[in-house]
């Protein structure tokens, strides 16, 4: 009797689980969709995706092909691992794609943030953005600020054990704050940094606005950041002084053809800080790691930077010609971004029902343009798991059609050259001033984001000792 009851229970649980698993399949059943599985109600396959990471993608691709359906991060999603389709989606936003970033991110970054706007508004905001992070502004205004910042930030690292993950995060944040609001940056950086870190966490959380949730803290942090920035705008307007920084240029009437409201200006500034923060800090941290493990690369990059210093006095800053001369450093940065895959892919949403590669994709479905695997494609990158910056010299790889480390099409990263300038200047002062070794034992996770959960500790000593 007991055995029979046990068997009945097992059968019931099995039937219940099967029904739950069928729920999403039935709910999202449409004619013409690619194959794939939709997982559990509400959660879909998010747990498998986050736990198994790239292996989840590879397993699904082996079963269903380069394009498959799933339900991850709260949405029915088409995952594309097809290089041609990925390129098509990025290059053809006007054919019915919009950014598909999570609601929490859009709410916290603001309705004028670049990922929330489309069409002509996107074009205008992007123009305004490029006017303060593009090559001319980098050369005339930003590079001197970055140089001054890096010299000071890296001035007392010798004879210490430091957590390079924390240091590069601080660096990315403080360096961009200096570029945004040069004069005020030193007085506002502490309250701003506290709020900024909360804002970042909030964008990666579920949009549940209850006290205590990361989303709630994120929204609160947004309010406080708006407050800090609005006060700067007010003070600057009252003083009539000229400021040679991003805010100064955005506020200037005559020189600047982009006229933005205060709300737009503030959302643009938040966008710049947010987009450049994790990308720049993580690439810098991983470059330090790869350089330590590849002495030949470290030797060559040092040679490049000492050559640049040869013609300079100690106090002479890095200028644009020096940046141009840092060819090997640029190659190290690309190789770091490729091998570590700092960005796994980008998200889009369909704005109407559409046909893609013969599949029918309903309006409002998310498309995960998953570009990670292309970084390890042996046809593009010989011996793809080896850290080999020399492969980038000569530039042909940077201009190949599947180079999507910085995205592509109308949303291709506008901060690419600024990011490279910041990381290059950081590496310049780091490798010419210091030697370092890893303390050991620190783990680096590669998915869903590249991070060292307990920090990455290095023992630093002066190079000249
Ligand atoms: C160096 C490391 C960087 C990497 C690997 C990187 C990567 C990317 C990628 C893949 C995209 C495309 C996103 C999409 O299509 O949805 C993107 C867009 C963007 N990036 Fe970067 N980025 C970097 C640095 C920066 C910096 C330093 C800034 C700002 C100063 C920045 C600002 C932006 C902005 C505003 C967008 C959105 C553009 C638009 O929607 O039109 N990025 N970035």
TrEMBL record:
An annotated GO BP: sterol metabolic process
Cofactor: heme
Membrane topology, as annotated: Single-pass membrane protein
Cellular component aspect of the GO annotation: membrane
Keywords on record: Heme, Iron, Membrane, Metal-binding, Monooxygenase, Oxidoreductase, Transmembrane, Transmembrane helix
Amino-acid positions noted as binding heme in the UniProt annotation, renumbered to this chain: 413
Name this polypeptide is given: Cytochrome P450 85A
Lineage: Eukaryota, Viridiplantae, Streptophyta, Embryophyta, Tracheophyta
């Amino acid at each position: 009797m007991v055995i029979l009851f046990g068997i009945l229970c097992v059968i019931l649980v099995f039937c219940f689980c099967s029904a739950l698993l069928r729920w999403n399949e039935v709910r999202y059943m449409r004619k013409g969709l690619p194959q794939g599985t939709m997982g559990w109600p509400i959660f879909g396959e998010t747990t498998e995706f986050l736990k198994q990471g790239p292996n989840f993608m590879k397993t699904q691709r082996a079963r269903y092909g380069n394009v498959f359906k799933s339900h991850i991060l709260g949405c029915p999603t088409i995952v594309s691992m097809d290089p041609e389709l990925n390129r098509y989606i990025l290059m053809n936003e006007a054919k019915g794609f919009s950014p598909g970033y999570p609601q929490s991110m859009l709410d916290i970054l603001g309705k004028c943030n670049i990922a929330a706007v489309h069409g002509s508004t996107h074009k205008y905001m992007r123009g305004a953005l490029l006017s303060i992070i593009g090559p001319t502004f980098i050369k005339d205004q930003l590079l001197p600020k970055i140089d001054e910042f890096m010299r000071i930030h890296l001035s007392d690292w010798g004879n210490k054990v430091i957590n390079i993950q924390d240091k590069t995060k601080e660096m990315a944040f403080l360096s961009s704050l200096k570029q945004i609001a040069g004069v005020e940056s030193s007085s506002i950086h502490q309250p701003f940094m506290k709020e900024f870190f909360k804002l970042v966490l909030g964008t990666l959380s579920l949009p549940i606005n209850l006290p205590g949730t990361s989303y709630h803290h994120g929204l609160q942090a947004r309010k406080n950041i708006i407050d800090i920035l609005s006060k700067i705008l007010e003070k600057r307007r009252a003083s009539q002084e000229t400021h040679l920084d991003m805010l100064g240029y955005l506020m200037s009437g005559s020189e600047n053809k982009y006229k933005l409201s205060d709300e737009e200006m503030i959302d643009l500034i938040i966008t710049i800080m947010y987009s450049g923060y994790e990308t720049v800090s993580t690439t810098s941290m991983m470059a330090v790691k790869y350089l330590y493990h590849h002495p030949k690369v470290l030797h060559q990059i040092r040679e490049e930077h000492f050559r640049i210093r040869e013609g300079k006095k100690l106090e002479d800053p890095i200028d644009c010609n020096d940046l141009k001369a840092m060819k090997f450093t640029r190659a190290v940065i690309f190789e770091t971004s490729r091998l570590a895959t700092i960005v796994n892919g980008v998200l889009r949403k369909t704005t109407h029902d559409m046909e893609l590669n013969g599949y029918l994709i309903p309006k409002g479905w998310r498309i995960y343009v998953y570009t990670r695997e292309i970084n390890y494609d042996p046809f593009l990158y010989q011996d793809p798991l080896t850290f080999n910056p020399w492969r980038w010299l000569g530039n042909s790889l940077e201009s190949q059609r599947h180079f999507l480390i910085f995205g592509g099409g109308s949303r291709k990263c506008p901060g690419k050259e600024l990011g490279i300038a910041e990381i290059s200047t950081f590496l310049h002062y780091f490798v010419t001033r210091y030697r370092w070794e890893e303390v050991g034992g620190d783990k680096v996770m590669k998915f869903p984001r590249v991070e060292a959960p307990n920090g990455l500790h290095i023992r630093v000593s002066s190079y000249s000792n």
